[in-house]
Structure formats: C-alpha cells, structure tokens
What does this fold into?
Amino acid sequence: MTAIDHAPSAAPVGEARLGTGIFDVDIHPVPREGLIASYLPDRWRRHIHEYGVRTTNGLTHVTEYPQMYGGAMRNDAWPDDGSYPGSSLELIRSQLLDPYNVTVGVLQCLAPGGQTLNPASQALDPRVADVLTRAINDWQLEHLVYPEPRLRASAPVAFEAAEFAVKEIERVGSNPGVVSILGLSKTLEPLGSRKYWPIYEAAVAHDLPIQFHLSQGGGHANTGTGWTSYHTEYHVGHTQSLQSQMLSLILTGTFDRFPDLKVMFVEGNVVHFAPLVQRLDYHWKTLRGEVADLQRKPSEYIRDHIFASTQPIDEPENPKHLAEMIEEFCPDNVVFASDYPHFDFDSPETVFPSVFPDDLRDKIMRTNGLRFFGLEG
Amino acid sequence: MPKYVVAGTSEIEPGERKIVELEGRKIGVFNVDGEYFALLDQCPHAGAALCSFGTVFGVSDADKPDGDISYERNRAIRCPWHAWEYDIRTGESFFDPRNARVRKYDVEVVPGSPADVVDPDGGRQKGPFVMEGYAVSVEDDMVVVDTSRRRPARGSRAQAQSRA
It folds into this structure.
C-alpha cells in the first residue's frame, strides 16, 4: 500500500467557542484522493478497490445526473494543486471561516471521495458502511477538527444497520470534537421506524442531536410518485422526502419515546415546513384517535425536537415574506448553513434581505445553533 | 469624472482579464477579442467575486425552433456560485419570458423605454438585474477605466435595499 502521512490520532479538543462569530451547520469536507483507503482494514480496502461500494441506489461510483455535475462545487473553490474542493483546510479557512467569522462550523461529510450525496452510510453491505464511516470519522477528526478548533464533526454512522451505528456512536460519541450524528434524508424506511430507534437511544445517551442531510439513494424512486423526468423536477421536489420524514418522526411517537432527541433537517429549505405542520395539526384534530398515544399536538413537537437549516435560502419576491414564513415554522429552530463549497453556497453577508429583522438574524446565525448542539457559547 | 490607468494594452491579452482595485472596490477589466469591458467584481445576486472567478462563454440564439442559430463567442459571464449569467458588455442579466411566464394578466410600469426590449414579440428580454459597469478607453497603449457610475442598480432587491 502507499504510505500516507496520518495526522495525530488523538489530540486535545477545546470547548467550541462561538464568541462574537457565527454558526455554520453545513460544511462539506472531502478526503484527499487515497486518504480514506489508508484508514481501512486490508480486507475491506481490497474489497472496495475490486468491487466498489454498492449503495441503496443500486450502483457504485454513479450518481444521479446532473446534480453532481462539476462535483456541484463552486467554481472558485477548486484548490490550485488540482485537488478536490473541500479537501483543503487552508481554503476552508480562507474562503469561509476567516472572511465571515465562522467560529463554529459543523462538517457534513457526504463522501467517500468526491461522491457527495452518495455516502458511506448507504452502503448495502453493513460491514462496508461500518468500515467506511469509521474511516471518515477518524479522518475528519485527525485532519480537520484537531488542527482547526473552529471545525466540529458530525459523525456519519451505518444508519441502515443499527447495531453497527450504535457501536460507532459509542466509539466516537464522547469525543468533544463530535457534536452530532449525521443521517440522511433518504432512508430505506421512514425515520420513525423502530429499526432506527436504537440509534436514537445511543445518540440521546451521548447528548448528541442528529442532522439529517439532503441525499439521494435510499432505495426508492426520488419522489413519492416515481422517478423525475427533469433535473428541475428533482431539485424542487426533493423537499417532499424531508416532509415525509418529519411526519413519520412525529406520528410514530419517536419524540415521546426519546424526549431528549433533537433532529435537524439540513439543506432542505425551511419555509415549506410551515404549511405542512399547520395541515398536520388540522387533520390530527379529526384523526387523533388513530395516534392516541401521541402526547402532544403535532406542532408542539417542533420547538423541542425539530430544527431546520437555512440553506438553500428561500427568496420570495416580497423579501418581508421570508421572515414571516420562518416565524410560522419556529423562529428559535432555524440555523444558518452555508453549504460550502457547493455551488448553491449561501453567503452570511447576503443570505437575508435587508428588511430581515436583526433579532431573528442573530438567532439564526448564533443562538439557535448553540441551543441545538447544547453548547455554551 | 475620475479616470484611472489600470494597465498597458499588452498586459491584458484577448481572452484575459485583470482584477484592479479602484476607490476601494474590486473591478474586473476584460479584453474580449480586442474590446475592453469593466465590471464590478461582485454578483448582484449574492455578492460572489464574479469577475475573479466567473466563466466567460459564448451565447447562441435563434428566432424560432429550426431557425438559423447565431452564435457570438465570449458574450456573457457566468457566476462561480449560483451560475447567474450576465452580458459582459452591458452587465445586464437576461431571461426568456417564454419559459418564465408565470403571471398572465399582471401589468406593471417599469423604468426604461421600449427600445430597451431586444425582441418586443416575446423573445429574449432584458432582465431585472444589472451589474455595475465602467467605461473603458484605450489612450496611447494604456487601458483607462472611468469610475463614474454608468447605471443604477434595478430590480426588487435593489428597491428593497433603497427602501430600507
């Protein structure tokens, strides 16, 4: 094998300090070419080299086209040395952390290597998902979190194989560099399914919230009515998967079973959740006998349990409507996300229209994130 | 009418660009097939460094399906972030109303004149966003940028900013 320099595998991680800076809950790092392989046991390195990683979209090395054209990366985020956007800590610092004063940035690693949105945790062989997610967690701690105290890890786990996921949460969940568990919007079963409850139990036991990031795969067509004909249709329509996941988590009583569980839907917009929750309350009044065990009115679960990240920000014609829709959802549960280095990056300087209320901006940029991750500031 | 010498003509070859700082603002100066254009290095949409990292590309156009296609190279610039596209000569964004006709009966009065419309029969129209541009001249082998503002910004965002 090629010897690759490893960063130190254990280092002190200081408290996350927000200070006067801002929170960013969605930064996408990518391991340098070949780096993840160096973290794999020989047997699995050979297996992946020879057979690839078969995932819940039934393919290896192929993603839905064209959303990953050009890696879906910002044109200006390609390092000069020809490596991949998101693989250079220097660029993450100079293009994101420094210019915008991001003092807590949470990593959402959706690799292996460049295959964003087709992540390790969706490998159909749970042993492959396990070794890949372990490798990613070791890599992101050693190469990003230990050298850069402003960065924190969200830990991907083998979500479809709870016994592996729980072991990984026990392995890295107490590391102060890990601030959340990373799940995906597309799963084999709806997120309220009891097959996932052991993962929630382990997350809560380690005081970790779960971030569910937009993804492809999941073993189903990309909408509830089948495959889309157009990229535009896919891109606009993917919010429905997040909506289904929210309904499932609430109505299955998952939050009654785990009163300390907090989840965040990442890169799935915000405002579409508001009318959904209102409709849910409306129908629940008539149909609540079906879910008689539910302890609260559906919308009451939002504030304690369900967060959303801003990106990609909605841009209504009347800029005042953005704040109104966020207020309708829950002004205390929306947290800023940049999505660096992807092309649909939201800049903290221009993400909100000038008419956006200052106090709401401050909550979204700063205090809501502290509340979700349980950090002091 | 401040004018600044920013480069010698030999310094920006056709197809090249130079980013200069004038009065505290970054400006991209482009040599497009021997003609010079200057634009503010900031996308009107979300503030990306459009001139530093934008892709200059050609634009093809046709009056109707199966009609003759005209192609003009190096006509437009695409933003490195959200891929918004602007005419590199005028800084104006474009959109096609035939593919963006969302409200049939709305009528509004906007600043400008019918001459501003490229095709009054519903083809390509000028869009609502305009980048800030600067006059560029060549004097004795020197490229000169005039920072007198040529165009006010327009569009719903610009109006919202001015109301605030």
Chain A is about 35% helix and 10% strand. Strands of chain A lie at 22-27, 102-107, 151-156, 178-184, 210-213, 263-266, 306-309, 334-335. Chain A touches chain B at residues 74-76, 317, 319, 343-347, 349-351, 353-355 (CB under 8 Å). The longest helix of chain A spans residues 126-145.
